[in-house]
Design brief:
CATH topology of the largest domain: SH3 type barrels
Number of helices: 4
CATH superfamily of the largest domain: Ferrous iron transport protein A (FeoA)
CATH class of the largest domain: Mainly Beta
Shape: elongated
Radius of gyration: 18 Å
Helix content: 10-25%
Distance between the termini: 36 Å
Largest sheet: 6 strands, antiparallel
Number of domains: 2
CATH architecture of the largest domain: Roll
Strand content: 35-45%
């Protein structure tokens, strides 16, 4: 299957790139190479935006049609930050808040692919304290429920 025909928000692995050597080298410098994991996050008739690690790259159909992909069968187990066990490390996958709430959480440093550590949970479960980017942050349980994380072993 070519990347042009890929579905939105489905992870794919790059199988081959059928472009001139100079173009392949340029894409490789951007991180797009055989074996990379990509995801289409937006698509129009003549272009698409591809999520590669934490970068967004825009390509037109002339490039999308030359990249062969296969669907990534390995699913990543996500859970809300509020359900993470105390003492566990995790990586932020997504924030499902809207508008001002999402902006406020992101301004506090809660962005995709940020490593967090759940330090404490209050006796009644609200609030929770996490460590990220060298500081401690306390969140309401309702805010933590809107943050999707992936457990990581540390």
């Amino acid at each position: 299957m070519i990347l042009q025909d890929a579905r939105l928000n489905v992870p794919y692995n790059i199988v081959s790139i059928n472009l001139p050597e100079a173009s392949i080298r340029h894409l490789s410098n951007l991180g797009l190479k055989v074996g990379s994991r990509v995801e289409l996050i937006s698509k129009t008739k003549s272009s698409a935006i591809v999520m590669l690690k934490s970068s967004r790259l825009a390509f037109d159909d002339s490039i999308l049609a030359q990249i062969d992909v296969s669907e990534d069968k390995e699913t990543i187990e996500t859970l809300p930050l509020s359900e993470l066990p105390v003492g566990q490390f995790a990586c932020i996958d997504n924030i499902f808040a809207v508008n001002e709430a999402k902006r406020r959480l992101m301004d506090m440093g809660l962005t995709r692919h940020t490593k967090v550590y759940l330090r404490k949970v209050a006796p009644l479960g609200d609030p929770i304290e996490i460590s990220l980017r060298g500081y401690e942050l306390t969140l309401r349980k309702s805010e933590a429920q809107m943050i999707s994380v992936v457990k990581i072993d540390e």
